[in-house]
Design brief:
Layout lengths: L10 E7 L6 E7 L16 E4 L15 E4 L6 E5 L4 E5 L4 H8 L17 H6 L7 H4 L6 E8 L3 E6 L4 H7 L8 E8 L7 E8 L2 H10 L5 E6 L9 E8 L30 H15 L3 E5 L1 H5 L6 H5 L6 E9 H18 L5 E8 L10 E10 L4 H16 L3 E2 L9 H7 L3 H9 L10 H5 L3
Parallel strand pairs: 2-4, 3-4
Antiparallel strand pairs: 1-2, 5-6, 6-9, 7-8, 7-9, 10-12, 10-13, 11-12, 11-15, 14-16, 14-17, 15-16
The structure holds flavin-adenine dinucleotide.
Length: 447
Protein backbone atom coordinates (compact mmCIF):
# COMPACT_ATOMS: atom_id res chain seq x y z
CA UNK A 1 0.00 0.00 0.00
CA UNK A 2 1.40 3.41 -0.95
CA UNK A 3 1.91 5.92 1.88
CA UNK A 4 -1.02 8.38 1.90
CA UNK A 5 1.13 11.38 1.05
CA UNK A 6 2.43 9.74 -2.11
CA UNK A 7 -0.98 8.91 -3.62
CA UNK A 8 -2.89 11.01 -6.11
CA UNK A 9 -1.35 14.38 -6.94
CA UNK A 10 1.68 14.13 -4.74
CA UNK A 11 4.95 13.10 -6.29
CA UNK A 12 7.15 10.77 -4.28
CA UNK A 13 10.85 10.43 -4.96
CA UNK A 14 11.79 6.82 -5.15
CA UNK A 15 14.69 4.65 -6.19
CA UNK A 16 13.49 2.08 -8.69
CA UNK A 17 15.54 -0.89 -9.85
CA UNK A 18 14.82 -3.13 -12.81
CA UNK A 19 14.09 -6.80 -12.03
CA UNK A 20 17.41 -7.81 -13.61
CA UNK A 21 19.18 -5.19 -11.45
CA UNK A 22 21.00 -3.73 -14.47
CA UNK A 23 19.56 -0.23 -14.04
CA UNK A 24 18.40 1.86 -11.06
CA UNK A 25 17.38 5.50 -10.86
CA UNK A 26 15.89 8.03 -8.44
CA UNK A 27 12.63 9.05 -10.07
CA UNK A 28 9.43 10.98 -9.38
CA UNK A 29 6.49 8.67 -8.90
CA UNK A 30 2.83 9.63 -9.05
CA UNK A 31 0.23 7.16 -7.80
CA UNK A 32 -3.10 8.22 -9.27
CA UNK A 33 -6.09 6.44 -7.77
CA UNK A 34 -8.83 8.09 -9.81
CA UNK A 35 -9.06 8.91 -13.47
CA UNK A 36 -9.04 12.70 -13.12
CA UNK A 37 -5.62 12.47 -11.47
CA UNK A 38 -4.21 11.26 -14.79
CA UNK A 39 -4.53 14.93 -15.81
CA UNK A 40 -2.72 16.18 -12.71
CA UNK A 41 0.70 16.44 -14.37
CA UNK A 42 1.36 19.35 -16.73
CA UNK A 43 0.54 18.08 -20.25
CA UNK A 44 4.15 18.46 -21.43
CA UNK A 45 5.67 16.63 -18.44
CA UNK A 46 7.61 13.54 -19.61
CA UNK A 47 6.03 10.43 -18.17
CA UNK A 48 5.77 6.67 -18.41
CA UNK A 49 3.24 4.20 -17.01
CA UNK A 50 4.26 1.46 -14.60
CA UNK A 51 2.23 -1.64 -13.79
CA UNK A 52 3.77 -4.37 -11.67
CA UNK A 53 7.26 -3.05 -12.43
CA UNK A 54 8.41 -6.63 -13.09
CA UNK A 55 9.98 -6.20 -16.50
CA UNK A 56 13.53 -7.51 -16.50
CA UNK A 57 14.55 -4.15 -18.00
CA UNK A 58 13.87 -0.56 -16.88
CA UNK A 59 10.76 -0.07 -19.03
CA UNK A 60 8.61 1.86 -16.56
CA UNK A 61 11.03 4.51 -15.31
CA UNK A 62 14.12 6.51 -16.20
CA UNK A 63 14.94 9.04 -18.89
CA UNK A 64 13.76 11.94 -16.65
CA UNK A 65 10.18 10.73 -16.86
CA UNK A 66 7.69 10.84 -14.02
CA UNK A 67 6.52 7.29 -13.39
CA UNK A 68 2.74 6.82 -13.21
CA UNK A 69 2.23 3.87 -10.90
CA UNK A 70 -1.08 2.39 -12.10
CA UNK A 71 -1.52 -0.28 -9.44
CA UNK A 72 -4.45 1.53 -7.77
CA UNK A 73 -6.50 0.90 -10.93
CA UNK A 74 -7.09 -2.78 -10.28
CA UNK A 75 -10.86 -3.26 -10.50
CA UNK A 76 -12.73 -5.77 -12.60
CA UNK A 77 -15.22 -3.54 -14.45
CA UNK A 78 -17.41 -6.01 -16.33
CA UNK A 79 -17.52 -9.77 -16.73
CA UNK A 80 -19.67 -11.63 -19.23
CA UNK A 81 -19.69 -15.13 -17.80
CA UNK A 82 -21.56 -16.57 -20.80
CA UNK A 83 -19.46 -15.10 -23.58
CA UNK A 84 -16.16 -15.15 -21.69
CA UNK A 85 -15.28 -11.46 -21.89
CA UNK A 86 -13.66 -9.45 -19.10
CA UNK A 87 -13.14 -5.70 -18.85
CA UNK A 88 -10.42 -5.01 -16.29
CA UNK A 89 -8.43 -1.99 -15.16
CA UNK A 90 -4.85 -1.88 -16.35
CA UNK A 91 -3.22 -2.07 -12.91
CA UNK A 92 -4.76 -5.45 -12.00
CA UNK A 93 -2.19 -8.22 -11.86
CA UNK A 94 -2.43 -11.24 -14.14
CA UNK A 95 -2.26 -13.46 -11.03
CA UNK A 96 -5.31 -11.75 -9.49
CA UNK A 97 -7.20 -11.91 -12.77
CA UNK A 98 -6.57 -15.66 -13.08
CA UNK A 99 -7.58 -16.12 -9.41
CA UNK A 100 -10.92 -14.48 -10.20
CA UNK A 101 -11.52 -16.27 -13.49
CA UNK A 102 -10.56 -19.88 -12.77
CA UNK A 103 -13.42 -20.59 -10.33
CA UNK A 104 -15.78 -19.18 -13.00
CA UNK A 105 -14.44 -21.65 -15.56
CA UNK A 106 -12.46 -19.15 -17.64
CA UNK A 107 -8.85 -18.00 -17.86
CA UNK A 108 -6.43 -15.78 -19.74
CA UNK A 109 -4.45 -18.31 -21.82
CA UNK A 110 -1.52 -15.94 -22.45
CA UNK A 111 0.06 -15.33 -19.04
CA UNK A 112 3.69 -14.34 -18.53
CA UNK A 113 5.74 -16.14 -15.89
CA UNK A 114 5.50 -13.41 -13.28
CA UNK A 115 2.05 -13.29 -11.58
CA UNK A 116 2.53 -9.62 -10.62
CA UNK A 117 2.74 -8.42 -14.23
CA UNK A 118 -0.20 -6.05 -14.75
CA UNK A 119 -2.74 -6.20 -17.55
CA UNK A 120 -1.39 -2.84 -18.82
CA UNK A 121 2.15 -4.25 -18.81
CA UNK A 122 0.99 -7.41 -20.64
CA UNK A 123 -0.60 -5.26 -23.36
CA UNK A 124 2.26 -2.75 -23.63
CA UNK A 125 4.87 -5.54 -23.93
CA UNK A 126 2.60 -7.89 -25.93
CA UNK A 127 3.73 -10.73 -23.68
CA UNK A 128 3.69 -14.43 -24.50
CA UNK A 129 2.62 -17.28 -22.25
CA UNK A 130 3.28 -20.98 -21.86
CA UNK A 131 2.87 -21.81 -25.55
CA UNK A 132 2.82 -18.86 -27.94
CA UNK A 133 2.56 -21.23 -30.93
CA UNK A 134 -0.87 -22.33 -29.71
CA UNK A 135 -2.19 -19.21 -27.98
CA UNK A 136 -0.43 -16.36 -29.78
CA UNK A 137 0.69 -13.33 -27.81
CA UNK A 138 -1.42 -11.06 -25.58
CA UNK A 139 -2.55 -9.17 -28.71
CA UNK A 140 -4.74 -12.17 -29.60
CA UNK A 141 -6.93 -11.54 -26.53
CA UNK A 142 -7.41 -7.77 -26.61
CA UNK A 143 -10.79 -6.60 -27.92
CA UNK A 144 -10.72 -3.01 -26.78
CA UNK A 145 -8.53 -0.61 -24.80
CA UNK A 146 -9.11 2.63 -22.99
CA UNK A 147 -6.14 4.95 -23.17
CA UNK A 148 -5.39 8.24 -21.47
CA UNK A 149 -3.56 10.72 -23.69
CA UNK A 150 -2.70 14.13 -22.21
CA UNK A 151 -4.68 16.85 -23.96
CA UNK A 152 -7.09 14.29 -25.48
CA UNK A 153 -8.42 12.64 -22.32
CA UNK A 154 -9.72 9.07 -22.22
CA UNK A 155 -9.99 7.37 -25.62
CA UNK A 156 -11.67 4.05 -26.40
CA UNK A 157 -9.70 2.25 -29.12
CA UNK A 158 -10.16 -1.06 -30.87
CA UNK A 159 -9.33 -2.69 -34.20
CA UNK A 160 -12.06 -0.68 -35.98
CA UNK A 161 -11.97 2.61 -34.09
CA UNK A 162 -8.49 4.13 -34.44
CA UNK A 163 -6.89 0.88 -35.52
CA UNK A 164 -3.44 2.49 -35.87
CA UNK A 165 -3.41 3.67 -32.25
CA UNK A 166 -4.79 0.31 -31.03
CA UNK A 167 -2.15 -1.57 -32.98
CA UNK A 168 0.73 0.65 -31.83
CA UNK A 169 -0.34 0.47 -28.17
CA UNK A 170 -0.06 -3.33 -28.11
CA UNK A 171 3.67 -3.89 -27.78
CA UNK A 172 4.23 -0.11 -27.70
CA UNK A 173 6.13 -0.06 -24.36
CA UNK A 174 3.83 2.64 -22.94
CA UNK A 175 4.75 5.18 -25.63
CA UNK A 176 1.26 5.81 -27.02
CA UNK A 177 -0.50 6.77 -23.77
CA UNK A 178 -1.53 5.33 -20.45
CA UNK A 179 -3.79 2.29 -20.70
CA UNK A 180 -6.59 2.56 -18.13
CA UNK A 181 -8.52 -0.59 -18.96
CA UNK A 182 -8.64 -3.51 -21.36
CA UNK A 183 -11.41 -5.78 -22.58
CA UNK A 184 -10.13 -9.32 -22.98
CA UNK A 185 -11.50 -12.41 -24.71
CA UNK A 186 -11.22 -15.40 -22.37
CA UNK A 187 -10.79 -19.11 -22.97
CA UNK A 188 -12.07 -22.19 -21.11
CA UNK A 189 -9.16 -23.65 -19.12
CA UNK A 190 -8.17 -27.31 -19.23
CA UNK A 191 -9.35 -29.18 -16.14
CA UNK A 192 -5.74 -30.01 -15.26
CA UNK A 193 -2.50 -30.55 -17.11
CA UNK A 194 -0.83 -33.86 -17.88
CA UNK A 195 2.80 -32.88 -18.10
CA UNK A 196 5.08 -35.09 -20.19
CA UNK A 197 8.85 -34.72 -19.83
CA UNK A 198 10.77 -35.40 -23.02
CA UNK A 199 14.55 -35.43 -22.48
CA UNK A 200 16.61 -34.02 -25.34
CA UNK A 201 20.34 -34.32 -26.12
CA UNK A 202 20.71 -31.03 -27.95
CA UNK A 203 18.84 -28.02 -29.31
CA UNK A 204 18.17 -29.64 -32.70
CA UNK A 205 16.30 -32.45 -30.98
CA UNK A 206 14.55 -29.86 -28.80
CA UNK A 207 13.37 -28.06 -31.94
CA UNK A 208 11.90 -31.29 -33.31
CA UNK A 209 10.00 -32.03 -30.10
CA UNK A 210 8.71 -28.44 -29.88
CA UNK A 211 7.48 -28.48 -33.49
CA UNK A 212 5.76 -31.86 -33.02
CA UNK A 213 3.94 -30.63 -29.90
CA UNK A 214 2.70 -27.25 -31.17
CA UNK A 215 -0.83 -27.80 -29.90
CA UNK A 216 0.06 -28.45 -26.23
CA UNK A 217 -1.25 -26.04 -23.55
CA UNK A 218 2.21 -25.89 -22.00
CA UNK A 219 5.30 -26.17 -24.16
CA UNK A 220 8.77 -25.03 -23.22
CA UNK A 221 12.25 -26.42 -22.78
CA UNK A 222 14.94 -26.13 -20.16
CA UNK A 223 18.53 -26.66 -21.27
CA UNK A 224 21.99 -26.87 -19.79
CA UNK A 225 24.25 -24.05 -21.02
CA UNK A 226 27.61 -25.59 -20.03
CA UNK A 227 30.02 -26.27 -22.93
CA UNK A 228 30.26 -30.04 -22.43
CA UNK A 229 26.51 -30.49 -22.04
CA UNK A 230 25.27 -27.63 -24.19
CA UNK A 231 21.59 -27.95 -25.11
CA UNK A 232 20.88 -31.11 -23.12
CA UNK A 233 17.69 -30.83 -21.19
CA UNK A 234 14.01 -31.49 -21.29
CA UNK A 235 10.92 -30.28 -23.11
CA UNK A 236 7.83 -30.02 -20.95
CA UNK A 237 4.73 -30.84 -22.93
CA UNK A 238 1.49 -30.16 -21.05
CA UNK A 239 -1.68 -31.60 -22.52
CA UNK A 240 -5.19 -31.13 -21.23
CA UNK A 241 -6.03 -33.75 -18.60
CA UNK A 242 -9.79 -33.99 -18.86
CA UNK A 243 -9.84 -37.13 -16.75
CA UNK A 244 -8.61 -35.16 -13.71
CA UNK A 245 -10.93 -35.54 -10.71
CA UNK A 246 -11.67 -31.84 -10.18
CA UNK A 247 -10.86 -28.46 -11.62
CA UNK A 248 -7.99 -27.09 -9.59
CA UNK A 249 -8.43 -23.46 -8.52
CA UNK A 250 -5.75 -23.26 -5.83
CA UNK A 251 -3.74 -20.23 -6.94
CA UNK A 252 -2.84 -18.68 -3.65
CA UNK A 253 -1.73 -15.03 -3.57
CA UNK A 254 0.73 -15.95 -0.81
CA UNK A 255 2.80 -17.94 -3.25
CA UNK A 256 3.10 -15.16 -5.89
CA UNK A 257 6.72 -14.43 -6.77
CA UNK A 258 7.59 -11.06 -5.14
CA UNK A 259 8.01 -8.06 -7.45
CA UNK A 260 11.46 -7.42 -5.99
CA UNK A 261 13.58 -10.25 -4.66
CA UNK A 262 16.27 -9.43 -2.11
CA UNK A 263 19.60 -10.60 -3.52
CA UNK A 264 21.75 -13.03 -1.54
CA UNK A 265 24.87 -11.30 -0.17
CA UNK A 266 27.05 -13.96 -1.81
CA UNK A 267 26.03 -14.86 -5.37
CA UNK A 268 25.43 -18.54 -6.07
CA UNK A 269 25.86 -18.66 -9.82
CA UNK A 270 29.60 -18.99 -10.19
CA UNK A 271 30.89 -21.98 -12.23
CA UNK A 272 30.55 -24.40 -9.32
CA UNK A 273 27.08 -23.20 -8.38
CA UNK A 274 25.89 -23.49 -11.98
CA UNK A 275 27.36 -27.00 -12.22
CA UNK A 276 25.66 -28.17 -9.02
CA UNK A 277 22.29 -26.63 -9.95
CA UNK A 278 22.33 -28.01 -13.49
CA UNK A 279 23.30 -31.51 -12.34
CA UNK A 280 20.52 -31.45 -9.75
CA UNK A 281 17.98 -30.23 -12.32
CA UNK A 282 19.11 -32.84 -14.84
CA UNK A 283 18.55 -35.61 -12.32
CA UNK A 284 15.22 -34.18 -11.19
CA UNK A 285 13.66 -33.03 -14.47
CA UNK A 286 15.32 -34.83 -17.34
CA UNK A 287 13.92 -38.31 -16.86
CA UNK A 288 11.27 -39.29 -19.38
CA UNK A 289 7.95 -39.40 -17.62
CA UNK A 290 4.61 -38.00 -16.97
CA UNK A 291 2.91 -36.23 -14.08
CA UNK A 292 -0.49 -34.62 -13.61
CA UNK A 293 -0.17 -31.03 -12.37
CA UNK A 294 -2.64 -28.35 -11.36
CA UNK A 295 -3.24 -25.62 -13.90
CA UNK A 296 -2.18 -23.06 -11.26
CA UNK A 297 1.23 -24.74 -11.03
CA UNK A 298 1.54 -24.81 -14.80
CA UNK A 299 0.69 -21.10 -15.12
CA UNK A 300 3.29 -19.69 -12.73
CA UNK A 301 6.11 -22.23 -12.30
CA UNK A 302 8.52 -19.40 -11.40
CA UNK A 303 6.68 -18.88 -8.10
CA UNK A 304 9.16 -21.48 -6.82
CA UNK A 305 12.18 -19.60 -8.18
CA UNK A 306 12.91 -17.03 -5.43
CA UNK A 307 16.23 -18.58 -4.48
CA UNK A 308 17.15 -18.87 -8.15
CA UNK A 309 16.74 -15.10 -8.72
CA UNK A 310 18.20 -14.15 -5.31
CA UNK A 311 21.23 -16.26 -6.21
CA UNK A 312 22.35 -13.74 -8.84
CA UNK A 313 23.35 -11.47 -5.97
CA UNK A 314 23.44 -7.67 -5.97
CA UNK A 315 24.83 -7.46 -9.51
CA UNK A 316 21.79 -9.28 -10.93
CA UNK A 317 21.43 -11.09 -14.22
CA UNK A 318 20.75 -10.53 -17.89
CA UNK A 319 18.29 -12.42 -20.06
CA UNK A 320 19.11 -12.58 -23.75
CA UNK A 321 16.05 -13.76 -25.69
CA UNK A 322 16.13 -14.19 -29.48
CA UNK A 323 13.48 -15.65 -31.77
CA UNK A 324 15.15 -17.35 -34.74
CA UNK A 325 13.07 -18.37 -37.79
CA UNK A 326 12.64 -22.13 -38.36
CA UNK A 327 14.79 -22.47 -41.50
CA UNK A 328 17.82 -20.97 -39.70
CA UNK A 329 17.28 -22.30 -36.17
CA UNK A 330 19.36 -25.50 -36.36
CA UNK A 331 22.33 -23.63 -37.89
CA UNK A 332 22.00 -20.94 -35.20
CA UNK A 333 21.97 -23.59 -32.46
CA UNK A 334 25.16 -25.21 -33.83
CA UNK A 335 26.92 -21.82 -34.13
CA UNK A 336 25.85 -20.90 -30.59
CA UNK A 337 27.12 -24.26 -29.27
CA UNK A 338 30.49 -23.71 -31.00
CA UNK A 339 30.70 -20.21 -29.53
CA UNK A 340 29.94 -21.55 -26.03
CA UNK A 341 32.61 -24.26 -26.45
CA UNK A 342 35.18 -21.63 -27.46
CA UNK A 343 34.35 -18.85 -25.02
CA UNK A 344 33.08 -20.89 -22.06
CA UNK A 345 30.72 -18.23 -20.68
CA UNK A 346 28.79 -18.69 -17.46
CA UNK A 347 25.20 -19.48 -18.52
CA UNK A 348 22.89 -20.36 -15.65
CA UNK A 349 20.10 -21.71 -17.83
CA UNK A 350 18.63 -21.71 -21.32
CA UNK A 351 14.93 -22.01 -22.08
CA UNK A 352 13.23 -22.64 -25.40
CA UNK A 353 9.75 -21.81 -26.75
CA UNK A 354 7.92 -22.26 -30.05
CA UNK A 355 6.32 -19.25 -31.81
CA UNK A 356 3.90 -19.25 -34.72
CA UNK A 357 2.79 -15.63 -35.02
CA UNK A 358 3.41 -12.63 -37.20
CA UNK A 359 6.57 -10.57 -36.68
CA UNK A 360 5.48 -6.95 -36.26
CA UNK A 361 6.52 -3.95 -34.21
CA UNK A 362 9.31 -4.40 -31.70
CA UNK A 363 7.67 -6.98 -29.41
CA UNK A 364 8.63 -10.64 -29.66
CA UNK A 365 6.64 -12.62 -32.21
CA UNK A 366 7.12 -14.46 -35.49
CA UNK A 367 7.53 -18.05 -36.64
CA UNK A 368 10.43 -19.90 -35.13
CA UNK A 369 12.05 -20.92 -31.88
CA UNK A 370 13.02 -18.51 -29.14
CA UNK A 371 15.96 -19.20 -26.87
CA UNK A 372 16.34 -17.30 -23.60
CA UNK A 373 19.78 -17.36 -21.95
CA UNK A 374 20.18 -16.31 -18.32
CA UNK A 375 23.65 -15.10 -17.39
CA UNK A 376 25.01 -13.52 -14.23
CA UNK A 377 25.39 -9.77 -14.76
CA UNK A 378 28.11 -9.43 -17.42
CA UNK A 379 30.50 -7.38 -15.31
CA UNK A 380 33.50 -9.27 -16.76
CA UNK A 381 34.59 -8.28 -20.25
CA UNK A 382 34.53 -11.93 -21.41
CA UNK A 383 30.86 -12.28 -20.41
CA UNK A 384 30.04 -8.96 -22.11
CA UNK A 385 31.82 -10.11 -25.26
CA UNK A 386 29.78 -13.32 -25.21
CA UNK A 387 26.50 -11.36 -25.01
CA UNK A 388 27.62 -9.34 -28.05
CA UNK A 389 28.54 -12.54 -29.88
CA UNK A 390 25.06 -14.02 -29.19
CA UNK A 391 23.49 -10.92 -30.72
CA UNK A 392 25.80 -11.18 -33.77
CA UNK A 393 24.96 -14.84 -34.31
CA UNK A 394 21.23 -14.31 -33.81
CA UNK A 395 21.18 -11.42 -36.28
CA UNK A 396 23.21 -13.45 -38.82
CA UNK A 397 20.49 -16.10 -38.57
CA UNK A 398 17.56 -13.69 -38.95
CA UNK A 399 16.76 -13.48 -35.20
CA UNK A 400 14.61 -10.87 -33.44
CA UNK A 401 15.40 -9.85 -29.86
CA UNK A 402 13.01 -9.25 -26.98
CA UNK A 403 13.54 -5.64 -25.81
CA UNK A 404 11.34 -6.02 -22.70
CA UNK A 405 13.78 -8.62 -21.36
CA UNK A 406 17.26 -7.83 -22.64
CA UNK A 407 19.20 -4.99 -20.97
CA UNK A 408 22.18 -5.47 -23.30
CA UNK A 409 20.34 -4.26 -26.42
CA UNK A 410 21.18 -0.83 -27.79
CA UNK A 411 20.06 1.15 -30.82
CA UNK A 412 22.84 -0.22 -33.03
CA UNK A 413 21.79 -3.84 -32.35
CA UNK A 414 18.12 -2.97 -32.78
CA UNK A 415 18.81 -1.36 -36.15
CA UNK A 416 20.60 -4.47 -37.37
CA UNK A 417 17.97 -6.85 -35.98
CA UNK A 418 14.98 -4.95 -37.42
CA UNK A 419 15.40 -4.22 -41.12
CA UNK A 420 12.39 -1.87 -40.86
CA UNK A 421 13.65 -0.16 -37.66
CA UNK A 422 13.06 3.44 -38.87
CA UNK A 423 9.57 2.77 -40.23
CA UNK A 424 8.53 0.86 -37.08
CA UNK A 425 9.96 3.54 -34.80
CA UNK A 426 8.23 6.28 -36.82
CA UNK A 427 4.88 4.46 -36.63
CA UNK A 428 5.22 4.43 -32.84
CA UNK A 429 6.50 8.01 -32.68
CA UNK A 430 3.45 9.20 -34.66
CA UNK A 431 1.46 8.63 -31.45
CA UNK A 432 4.06 10.35 -29.27
CA UNK A 433 4.78 13.47 -31.32
CA UNK A 434 6.07 15.63 -28.50
CA UNK A 435 8.08 12.72 -27.08
CA UNK A 436 6.40 12.94 -23.71
CA UNK A 437 6.29 9.17 -23.16
CA UNK A 438 9.60 7.40 -22.70
CA UNK A 439 11.69 5.28 -20.35
CA UNK A 440 15.24 4.07 -19.90
CA UNK A 441 14.35 1.20 -22.25
CA UNK A 442 13.03 3.41 -25.05
CA UNK A 443 16.03 5.78 -24.71
CA UNK A 444 18.54 2.91 -24.79
CA UNK A 445 17.09 1.24 -27.90
CA UNK A 446 16.63 4.52 -29.75
CA UNK A 447 12.84 4.83 -29.86
C1 LIG B 1 10.31 -13.71 -13.65
C2 LIG B 1 9.74 -13.11 -14.90
C3 LIG B 1 9.10 -13.93 -15.81
C4 LIG B 1 8.58 -13.38 -16.99
N1 LIG B 1 7.96 -14.21 -17.88
C5 LIG B 1 7.53 -13.71 -19.07
C6 LIG B 1 6.93 -14.55 -20.03
O1 LIG B 1 6.77 -15.75 -19.83
N2 LIG B 1 6.52 -13.98 -21.20
C7 LIG B 1 6.68 -12.65 -21.45
O2 LIG B 1 6.31 -12.20 -22.54
N3 LIG B 1 7.22 -11.82 -20.53
C8 LIG B 1 7.65 -12.33 -19.37
N4 LIG B 1 8.22 -11.50 -18.43
C9 LIG B 1 8.27 -10.07 -18.73
C10 LIG B 1 7.01 -9.36 -18.18
O3 LIG B 1 5.87 -10.15 -18.31
C11 LIG B 1 6.77 -8.08 -18.97
O4 LIG B 1 7.91 -7.27 -18.87
C12 LIG B 1 5.54 -7.30 -18.52
O5 LIG B 1 5.45 -6.13 -19.29
C13 LIG B 1 5.60 -6.91 -17.05
O6 LIG B 1 4.39 -6.29 -16.70
P1 LIG B 1 4.41 -5.08 -15.65
O7 LIG B 1 3.02 -4.75 -15.32
O8 LIG B 1 5.31 -5.39 -14.52
O9 LIG B 1 5.02 -3.94 -16.56
P2 LIG B 1 6.08 -2.81 -16.15
O10 LIG B 1 7.40 -3.45 -15.93
O11 LIG B 1 5.52 -1.98 -15.08
O12 LIG B 1 6.10 -2.01 -17.53
C14 LIG B 1 6.44 -2.69 -18.72
C15 LIG B 1 6.05 -1.82 -19.91
O13 LIG B 1 4.63 -1.72 -19.95
C16 LIG B 1 4.25 -0.36 -19.91
N5 LIG B 1 3.02 -0.26 -19.13
C17 LIG B 1 2.73 -0.82 -17.95
N6 LIG B 1 1.48 -0.46 -17.55
C18 LIG B 1 1.00 0.36 -18.52
C19 LIG B 1 -0.22 1.08 -18.67
N7 LIG B 1 -1.20 1.03 -17.79
N8 LIG B 1 -0.35 1.84 -19.79
C20 LIG B 1 0.63 1.91 -20.74
N9 LIG B 1 1.79 1.25 -20.63
C21 LIG B 1 1.97 0.48 -19.53
C22 LIG B 1 5.39 0.37 -19.24
O14 LIG B 1 5.43 1.74 -19.59
C23 LIG B 1 6.59 -0.40 -19.79
O15 LIG B 1 6.92 0.05 -21.06
C24 LIG B 1 8.72 -12.00 -17.25
C25 LIG B 1 9.36 -11.18 -16.32
C26 LIG B 1 9.87 -11.74 -15.16
C27 LIG B 1 10.59 -10.86 -14.19
Amino acid sequence: MAPAESRGFALARERLTSFDRQFAADVRVQRPDRYRLLDALPADQPRIARGGGVSYVAASFGNDATTLDMRAFDRLLAFDDRAGVLCVEAGASIGDVQRFLLPHGWYVPVAPGHPRASIGGCVASDVHGKNPARDGTFRALVEELQLHVPGRGLLGVDARNDAALFDATIGGFGMTGTITHATLRLVRPPRAIALRRVPVDDLAQAARVLRESANAHVLYGWHDGRPDRFGRGVIRVGLSDDEAASRDVALSKNTDLPAAIAPLPVPLWNRNGIAVANSWLSRRWCKPGFEPIALAQALFPLNDARLYFAGYGKAGLVELQWLVPHPRFEAFAVALGDCVARERPRIALISSKLFDGVARGFALDGKGIALALHLPSPTQSSQRAFCERVAELAIEHGGRPNPIKDSTLDEAVMRRAFADFDATRDALAAHNRDGRFGSELTRRIGL
